[in-house]
Amino acid sequence: MMAERGAAAQNRPLNGQDIRTLALASLGGALEFYDFIIYVFFATVIGHLFFPVGMPDWLQQVQTFGIFAAGYLARPLGGIIMAHFGDLVGRKRMFTLSVFLMAVPTLLIGLMPTYETIGYAAPVLLLVFRMMQGAAIGGEGPGAWVFVAEHVPAKHVGLACGMLTGGLTGGIMLGSLMATGINAAFTPAEVGEWAWRIPFLAGGVSGLVAMYLRRFLQETPIFEEMRAHAALSKELPVKQALRDHRGAVILSMLVTWMLTAAVVVVILMTPALMQKLHGFTPVMTLKANLAATFLLTVCAMFSGVLLDRFGAVKVGLIGGVLLIVSTYALYIGAGTSPELLLPLYAFAGATVGVINVVPFVMVNAFPPSVRFTGVSFSYNVAYAIFGGVTPLLVTALVNANPLGPAHYVGAVTVVFLICMMTQARARLSLVTPEAAEAPAR
C-alpha cells in the first residue's frame, strides 16, 4: 500500500499548490523549448558568423544544421542520465537541473565571439553548447511530465500532462514570434551584426529566472513516499525498466512515433513543403504555422480535460482519426484552394493536440520506482530514431507524391490507433482515468 494516497487524496480537487506547480512547470517547459528551438530560426545567420567566410553556402548550411542535429543526438544520453538520478535522488533536483543546463549554454551562445574573432574555436564551442542543450531537453520533457503527474490528484493527471505539453509546444510558438519580431524590427545587416544575439540572451536570462522559481517547487509526494518506505530502485533503473517492463517500453516508443510524425511533419516541415509544392510565400506559411501552433497549444491542454473524463483509448482513437483527416485535408485543400491554407493548417494544428495522449500513456505505463527512467528512455530513444528518420523519409516521399507527407502521418497514426485498440482489448489500466494512480499501487 506504499504509494496509495487514499481515496480522498485521489479525488480531491486541484488546490493552490497544484496550480502553482503546474504553472511554474509549464512556464519552465515553454522557456526551455524556446531556448532549444530558437537556434533553427537563426541558422542562416549563425552559419555565416561561425564558419569560415570562404566556405560555400551549402557547406555552411550542412555544418550549421549538423550542429543543430547534434542537440538531438545528445537527447537520449542526457535524458537517461537525468532520469537515472531522478529515480534515485529525486524528481525535483533533475527538474531544476534541466533548466539550468539549457539556460547557461543559450546565454553563452548569445555572448560568444564569432569565427572572425576566435577562429575554429567558434564552431567547436557552438557544438559543445548545442549538445548541452540537447542533454537538457532530453530530461525536461519526460521529467516534467512525471513531476506534474505525481503531484496532482489521479483524476487530473491528463490535465497536468496537457498543461505541460501545451507549455512545450508554446515554446516553439515563442521562438517563431521572437524570430518574426527580430526580423521585422531590424534590417538584415543589423540582424547579422548583433540583433541575432537578442533571442539567445533573452532565452538564457529567462531560463535562469525559471530555474530560480523552480526552487520553490516541492518534491513529488509519490517519490517522498518511496523514499520514506525505502522503496527506491535497488539496481540500475534502466536495467529494471528494460527487463521487467519491456511491453511498456515498446508501447511508449510506438506512441512516441506518432508524436514525432505529427510535430515534425505537420508543425515543423509543412511550411517549407507548402512553399515547395504550391509556391506559397514564407509570410503566408508563417502566419498559417503560427495559427496551427497556437491551436496545438490550446488543444493539447483541452485534450487533458478529455483524458481525465474519457481515458486514453477513446481520446486517442478519435483524435488519431481527426489527425489523419486534417492532414490529408491540408495537403489536398491547400493545393486546390490556396485561400484555405490558414484555416486548414489551423485545423491540422488543433488535431495535433492528440499528442498529449502520449505522455498520459507513458506515465501510466511504468511503476514509480522506474517511471522517470522508463518514460525518458522510451521517449528520447524513439524521438532520436524517428525524429531523425522522418525528414529523410518525408523528403523522399514528397518527391514521389505531393501527398507523401500526409501518407506518412496517416500510416504512423494507424500504428498509434492499433496500439490504442490493443490496449482497449487488453483492458489495461490506461483505458480509464483512474489509471493515473494504478501504477503507484
What's the main sheet like?
Answer: none
In angstroms, what separates the terminal alpha carbons?
6 Å
Helix and strand run: HHHHHHHHHHHHHHHHHHH
Helix content: over 70%
- How many DSSP-defined strands? 0
Helical region count?
Answer: 19
Mean pLDDT: 82
In terms of per-residue confidence, which ranges show pLDDT below 50 for 5 or more consecutive residues? 1-8, 427-441
Query: Based on helices, strands and strand pairing, what is the structural class?
Result: mainly alpha
β-sheet strand percentage:
under 5%
Cα shape: globular
Could you please describe the fold and organization of this structure?
This protein has 441 residues and is mostly helical. The chain has 19 helices and no strands.
Entry summary:
This protein is mainly α and 441 residues long. The chain has 19 helices and no strands. Helix 2 runs parallel beside helix 8 and helix 5 runs antiparallel to helix 7.
Question: Could you name the key traits of this structure?
Answer:
single chain; 441 residues; mainly alpha; 0% strand; disordered C terminus
Map the helices and strands:
Elements: H1 6-11, H2 16-41, H3 43-50, H4 57-88, H5 91-111, H6 115-118, H7 121-149, H8 157-185, H9 188-195, H10 197-214, H11 221-228, H12 237-244, H13 246-278, H14 282-310, H15 312-336, H16 341-351, H17 357-365, H18 371-400, H19 404-426
